[in-house]
Fold Heat-shock protein.
Amino acid sequence: MSRYFSPLRVGGQPVDLSHLEPFTIIIQSEKVGKPLRTAITFTNHCFSASHGDLPHPPGDEVIWDGGKMRTFCATRYRLSHALPQVIRSLPERKVILAAHGTTWVHTLTVENPDGPYHLFLTIKRSPKEKRAWQDIDVIVESAYPETRNAPSTTGSWRPFVVVCGDAYLSNPQKPKKKRRR
């Protein structure tokens, strides 16, 4: 059976990432007038930190995110075990747009470490070639406990199901061709 994430070893021991395998949830969307099949995926930012933010033990694997090096983060990894259930609860929750305008933020409180835990989500309509089996893509771009400042956001909190409906109904416009005169 193939795994979504490549096998990872930390301190010479294998790290089980099976809890972050992709899955699908159904979101009841009044806005769209139909259930939305929502594909959930995670990035390695849910269990790693920027290389240099944490000490990188000699011999541990470097985790690659495109061309950038990342380091396994035991705290993010431990908290990531709750992510599938948190995602399944999002249809009853709200999200807010991050200030950079490309991801949505959902924040909850965790006990260890004590404080806010932020999830950053990309929510978009699935590409045409996938629409036979899914309607929406939700990518958990990152998830980590707040250690410095809260994420910058804009606008107001919106129901997750409304944001998914908006994403499904969005119809990106193709650039208009210039008319020749």
Observations:
- Residues 160-169 form the longest helix (10 residues).
- The chain has a mean pLDDT of 91.
